[in-house]
Amino acid sequence: MAAVTDSSFAPDASMGAAFTSVSSNVLLPGTPGSDNYVRIVNVGPLLCAVKLGTSDAVTVTGTTGVVIMPGQVLNLTLGSNTYLAGIALGSQGNAAVVNITTGN
C-alpha cells in the first residue's frame, strides 16, 4: 500500500464505515477496478488501522495495517484491491468511524 501525494483527486464514490475492535472489511465504493486511489478519512476519536485486499478475506491488526490518527487523511494506491479491512485501536466496545472515497 503506497501512500499517494497527488494534490488533485477526482472522487468516484464515497461511503462511511465503522470498525470495532474486531477486524472487519468492506467492499470499496464506486468502481475500484477503474479507480487509482482510495482516500480514507478518520472522522472519529479513535485510532484506526486499515489494510487493502483483493477479497473479503482480508483482515488487519494494529501491526499489519496502516494506522490513521483521528482527524487524519490517508491516500492509498488501489492496484487490484477492492476491499478495505479496518479495526479500531485502543478502545473496547467503541467504533472507529471513517469516510472512504475512491477516485482518480
Sum up the structure in keywords.
Jelly Rolls; four-stranded antiparallel beta sheet; globular; mainly beta; 104 residues; 8 strands
Question: What does this protein structure show overall?
Answer:
0% of the residues lie in helices and 47% in strands. The chain is mainly beta. The protein has a single domain, classed as Jelly Rolls, CATH 2.60.120.10. The radius of gyration is 12 Å and the shape is globular.
Summarize this structure briefly.
This protein is mostly beta strands. It is 0% helix and 47% strand.
Question: What is the element layout, followed by pairings?
Answer:
Layout: E1 11-19, E2 24-27, E3 37-42, E4 47-53, E5 66-68, E6 73-77, E7 83-89, E8 96-103
Antiparallel strand pairs: 1-8, 2-7, 3-6, 3-8, 4-5, 4-7
First-to-last CA distance? 16 Å
By secondary-structure content and strand pairing, the structural class works out as mainly beta
Oligomer type? single chain
Corresponding CATH superfamily: Jelly Rolls
| Overall domain count | 1
